[in-house]
Design brief:
This protein is an alpha+beta fold. It has two domains: 103 residues, no CATH class; 235 residues, Beta Barrel (Lipocalin). The protein is 21% helix and 36% strand. The protein contains nine helices and eleven strands. A ten-stranded antiparallel barrel has the order 1-2-3-5-6-7-8-9-10-11. It is rod-shaped, with a radius of gyration of 55 Å.
């Protein structure tokens, strides 16, 4: 029994070595024949590739059509033609067997390259999105506007003080004649330089008019040195709109017409020194070709008119108004030439009584002036730019769509279904 077992084992090992040496030969070993074991053919493991299977199926179909057309028997084959693509095994396989083999052992699918069956991300889309988006800043800026406006120039003016319902004949009037002084106007918005929000539209305003070397002369030829000035300053608030910039200015001022000299006491003409609080509304309107127009009107609440009340008319009431208009032409973004017109008017009600030294119903003190000045401006135009609103809408990013997918054509079976389905 032991010898028989050793003999069978020897035959089995010899058969195994022979199978390993000749894998394509489909011979059964003596032991396999004795034991009735079915021969395991390695060719069954090596299924034909998908392409070979499809070609085999196509050839068989074509061959059957030719045979059906010629009336030949399906079992006959053309000399030299073979149906076996796997080393001669299973040469009479039908279409159903081929399709079954393709489904059981499909060809491993290779990794598709990006852009074939998958959407390849567009490399330029990230870059374009970064370029299309507007650069962000630390915070939103206030509407574009000037933060500094300084104008220096000269005035040519005429002042008159006249009475109506005059009872006292000795009281002199101040008759108009052309005089001159220097003018300076300053508007400064510190918030527009150092901050954000509405505070950028709150500024400081200073206006100075000062005459030098003025002499007032009486009809008899006597001259009296005359002090003439108008100083005011306050807070200015602007509201930048698309086509204009309205503003409001509130402040305090001092306007004086005072005479002096050795014989001043003999001259019956009151001095005026108005201490007032002013409120002014105005607007700056930019036009085409660098031209701009500014206009304003204001009220002056007189706190004290000076010597005209303390010495001449103790019961008077007085108030004032003002108006300004100028046209500017921008030489460049920082310099502007301006031609202007100013008007000041104080109107009196004297409330004179019988015992008063001077009896007058009322008076008008008014000044007309024309000016020429050069302005230095910093910070841009005095109104918002129309392009600033449209730039925000164009800052949204746009992503370039990826290129269209390239579809790879999959080989189809004769029945129209894709291989491997």
């Amino acid at each position: 029994m032991r010898k028989r077992l050793i003999s069978n084992l020897t035959v089995l090992l010899a058969g195994a070595s022979l199978s390993a040496t000749l894998p394509g030969v489909g011979l059964a070993s003596p032991l396999e024949e004795r034991l009735g074991v079915e021969r395991f053919e390695p060719s069954r493991l090596r299924r034909p590739a998908r392409k070979g299977i499809l070609e085999l199926a196509a050839k068989k179909k074509k061959k059957k059509k030719k045979k059906a057309a010629s009336g030949q028997d399906d079992s006959s084959t053309t000399p030299g033609e073979t149906d076996d693509t796997s080393g001669g095994a299973d040469s009479s396989a039908s279409d159903a067997d081929v399709q079954k083999a393709a489904r059981v052992n499909p060809t491993p699918r290779t990794e598709s390259a990006p852009g074939d069956d998958q959407a390849k991300p567009a490399k330029g889309s990230v870059k374009i999105e970064a370029e299309g988006r507007a650069p962000t800043e630390g915070g939103p800026r206030a509407p574009v506007g000037r933060y500094l406006d300084v104008s220096i120039g000269g005035h040519a003016f005429s002042r008159s003080l006249t009475y109506h319902q005059q009872v006292t004949p000795a009281l002199r009037e101040y008759q108009p004649r052309v005089l001159g002084d220097a003018v300076l106007a300053l508007q400064y918005y510190p918030g527009a330089q150092f901050s954000d929000g509405f505070v950028t539209n709150i500024g400081l305003e200073v206006n100075v008019e000062q005459a030098f070397g003025i002499q007032s002369r009486t009809p008899d030829g006597t001259n009296f040195p005359t002090t003439i000035h108008d100083f005011n300053g306050g807070v200015r608030v602007r509201v930048p709109l698309e086509s204009l910039t309205p503003y409001l200015s509130v402040g305090y001022g001092d306007q004086a017409y005072k005479l002096s000299g050795a014989t001043r006491a003999t001259l019956i003409l009151p001095d005026t020194d108005y201490k007032y609080v002013r409120a002014v509304v105005g607007a700056v309107v930019p036009l085409s070709s660098g031209v701009s127009v500014a206009a304003s009107a204001g009220y002056r609440y007189v706190l004290s008119p000076g010597d005209i009340k303390t010495t001449y008319f103790p019961n008077l009431n007085v108030a004032g108004i003002e108006g300004n208009l100028y046209v500017g032409y921008a030489l460049d973004p920082s310099f502007e030439v301006r031609i202007g017109f100013d008007y000041r008017r104080y109107f009196y009600t004297m409330h004179s009584k019988i015992n008063d030294p001077f009896i007058v119903g009322g008076a008008i003190d008014q000044t007309y002036a024309g000016s020429l000045s050069l302005a230095i401006t910093l910070g841009g135009a005095d109104h918002p730019s129309s392009s600033s609103s449209s730039s925000s809408s164009s800052s949204s990013s746009e992503e370039v769509p990826p290129p269209p997918k390239k579809k790879t054509k999959r080989p189809k079976m004769e029945d129209g279904s894709a291989a491997g389905e």
